[in-house]
């Protein structure tokens, strides 16, 4: 029975929050927008653990950070309610279910991926992924490209990465520099947008309400910032040094640790933004996996709950399995180790940003000189995502030098379903998987 609107909910024990975060980890389909909507419905509207304004406040500052914003929002709310341990519990449970599911799917893919039924399913899913990436570009672009200046940045980023093959980190740095300059010359063009699409209406008194004082552990102090930052850096460095000592600094696991740390710092605009960087490193530089495998990994990642950036677990799994880093008789163990290393180093920065820098970012979020570089980066990200769709299309729509009419038709139908009918991702992928099975059976 819901509480009356004028009654404040009782304090929530950590064990109760634990079961909620675990449930969310298993049902958080739909990408960041869907995950944020799930949290809003449950935490703001139904349970009233946090007020609408405090929720939006947290969301806006998570959107300023590199990394998966929905994961960071969960960490933030958990931290605000139950201190550091609450943030760690919320963050871990948000992505651990998807990690476990993706490890199982990766094992099936590597061990049985050549079976006709598996190949048929992937044949149908991969064209859908192209449509999903285009839809992501449209969704982020409609929110980000508010004027011609930001549109020009997006177009320049697309040309830079698609035609000039400029590395993704250089595009990010160039966009940040443009944003810094734009904050001085055209500040109105670089205002931060991101708001949750839900209502601003009050849903009744919340446990953490608009007028609830900021708890002591969430107030900014330099000593606390230093403690958490040093602790996080020491943890990351310690794990990396252990991998380097045990398997060599040039070994695959140590290389993955360093690479995915850099990737985590490039995820402005969500997982789709960092995928070109992961592709450049994982496919072209380190050759952990092939380009078709990268597309297959994204297809599998779309079918699991949790943040889409979890596709890095697939990259780590396939890279460690393919290179048999523990020997030919332990490829499954190697794959699991690779997936865990990629996940650890991808998500560690997000925990550090929230637990250490949250109060500092909150204090400066309305300063356009602080936010303009991030706004410019978000605009550049749109162009990068479009280039990613173009890259995937080249590999999916052309087979043996000839256009694959069936794949093009599946992708076109998926675009209509996404753009015209707002179809859900899981239903779309299921339908395309069935179409792929039927087509592969008829041609088999």
TrEMBL record:
GO terms for cellular component: plasma membrane. Pfam families: Chromate_transp. One of its GO terms (molecular function) is chromate transmembrane transporter activity. Its main location: membrane. The keyword Iron does not apply. Keywords: Cell membrane, Membrane, Transmembrane, Transmembrane helix. It is a multi-pass membrane protein. It is found in: Cell membrane. PANTHER family: CHROMATE ION TRANSPORTER (EUROFUNG). Belongs to the chromate ion transporter (CHR) (TC 2.A.51) family. This is Chromate efflux transporter. It comes from Massilia atriviolacea. The gene is chrA.
